[in-house]
């Protein structure tokens, strides 16, 4: 076998996702298909995004497109934005610019974990945590969220910690459930992690995966665990709020509560480790665009209307759903209890949803609200009928 063991394991852990992706590729590219699967755009890009990039496109110096590492104006804009959003004292040096949240998570793994270390991840949770961990010889340890309301089960996390645990990954607003966790959750998690780190004689770090941080409904607030637990790194992506995941841009940020020695050590390690993981910086053009992009967002009023329309109509049709507090996903129980069969039946009618099997929850499904209102209206009769006929 040509492949490394870790490649075999990484591939196996994401097979349900890649084979689902392949299975819908042809069908979902049909212009009449109603594709609610991945969080992709279904309308032309935001003018704020294209304007920001256009303003930086014309070279202003010979080194405009030279090798670029962590560009200072980008770090400054991010630190300023984080200070305003989270009320914590971020400095530009706390920020490493990355290729989206994917790149930031890779950097966090390289900075903090050693081969064989265990990493706690939420179930249901984003389907790329496990393959990313396998690919760098780390061991995913899935911990179930509360089965009823999908809140974080801190006691279950406490039970999963071992002397080999090095990282815990949390995600709020959460994919696929749309839940946003309150400060009390972070405070009790901080307590558990601090206690376990002392007991095992080894610091357990927290990775707060926050790419949906700015996508929240009904004015619900956001708190980051970085304000409760100093050993937290935040990963962020602009791909969600700009709805342009193909333009890779994000960052990793250190919690300003980290004590000086550790903070200095990690700051100094950013750039060498970004080199080590294979030039883990965003393209020059995206970095130059950061100051302008900080204030650009998808239309939250329209996204709220789409959430309300779908959630309301499906709830009235008898579906059991989690009302999203954030993200652009709607998470529900498949009528009949078999998410894969339910999604296949709808796909046969041209409506594509994501089966819960991709999140280790075979009785569920996920709908992406990045579809247009027109697509939602066209799909609703079939979704309502599928609910009634189960
Ligand atoms: N984390 C979560 C929870 C996600 O849902 C995603 C993308 O779907 C990512 C990280 C990666 O984001 P990006 O592709 O913008 O880097």
Summarize the structure.
This protein is of the alpha/beta class and 390 residues long. It contains 13 helices and 13 strands. It has two domains: 133 residues, Aspartate Aminotransferase, domain 1 (Alpha-Beta Complex), CATH 3.90.1150.10; 247 residues, Type I PLP-dependent aspartate aminotransferase-like (Major domain) (Aspartate Aminotransferase, domain 2), CATH 3.40.640.
Summed up, the helix count is: 13
The largest sheet has its strands arranged as 2-8-7-6-5-3-4
CATH class division of the largest domain = Alpha Beta
Number of strands: 13
Sketch the topology as an H/E string, one letter per element.
Answer: HHEHHEHEHEHEHEEEHHHEEHEEEH
Largest sheet: 7 strands, mixed
Write down the Rg.
21 Å
Q: What structural category characterises the helix and strand content?
A: alpha/beta
* Helix amount: 40-55%
The residue-averaged pLDDT reads 97
Overall geometry comes to globular
CATH homologous superfamily grouping of the largest domain: Type I PLP-dependent aspartate aminotransferase-like (Major domain)
At CATH level 2, the architecture of the largest domain is 3-Layer(aba) Sandwich
Q: Tell me what portion of residues adopts beta-strand conformation.
A: 5-15%
């Amino acid at each position: 076998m040509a492949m490394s063991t870790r490649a075999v394991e990484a591939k196996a852990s994401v097979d349900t996702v890649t084979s689902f992706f392949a299975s819908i590729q042809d069908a979902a590219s049909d212009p009449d298909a109603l594709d609610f699967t991945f969080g992709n755009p279904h309308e032309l890009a935001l003018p704020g995004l294209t304007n920001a990039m256009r303003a930086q496109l014309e070279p202003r110096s010979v080194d405009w497109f030279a090798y670029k590492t962590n560009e200072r104006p980008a770090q400054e804009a991010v630190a300023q934005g984080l200070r305003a959003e989270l009320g914590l004292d971020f400095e530009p040096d706390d920020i490493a610019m990355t290729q989206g949240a994917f790149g930031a998570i890779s950097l966090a793994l390289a900075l903090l974990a050693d081969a064989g270390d265990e990493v706690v991840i939420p179930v249901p949770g984003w389907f790329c945590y496990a393959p990313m961990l396998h690919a760098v010889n780390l061991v995913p340890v899935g911990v179930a969220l509360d089965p009823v309301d999908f809140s974080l089960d801190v006691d279950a996390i406490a039970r999963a910690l071992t002397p080999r645990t090095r990282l815990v990954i949390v995600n709020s607003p959460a994919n696929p459930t749309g839940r946003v966790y309150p400060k009390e959750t972070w405070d009790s998690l901080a307590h558990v992690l601090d206690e376990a780190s002392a007991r095992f004689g080894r610091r357990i770090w927290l990775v707060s995966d926050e790419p949906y941080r700015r996508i929240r409904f009904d004015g619900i607030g956001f708190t980051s665990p970085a304000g409760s637990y100093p050993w937290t790194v935040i990963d962020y992506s602009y791909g969600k709020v700009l709805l342009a995941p193909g333009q890779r841009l994000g960052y990793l940020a250190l919690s300003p509560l980290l004590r000086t020695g550790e903070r200095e050590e990690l700051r100094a390690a950013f750039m060498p480790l970004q080199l080590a993981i294979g030039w883990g910086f965003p393209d020059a053009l995206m970095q130059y665009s950061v100051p302008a992009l900080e204030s650009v967002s998808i239309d939250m009023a329209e996204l709220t209307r789409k959430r309300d329309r779908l959630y309301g109509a499906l709830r009235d049709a008898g579906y059991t759903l989690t009302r999203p507090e954030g993200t652009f996903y709607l998470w529900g129980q498949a009528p009949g209890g078999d998410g894969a069969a339910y999604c296949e039946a709808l796909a046969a009618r041209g409506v594509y949803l994501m089966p819960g099997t991709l999140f280790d929850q075979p009785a569920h499904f996920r709908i992406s609200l990045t579809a247009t209102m027109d697509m939602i209206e066209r799909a609703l009769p079939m979704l309502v009928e599928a609910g009634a006929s189960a």
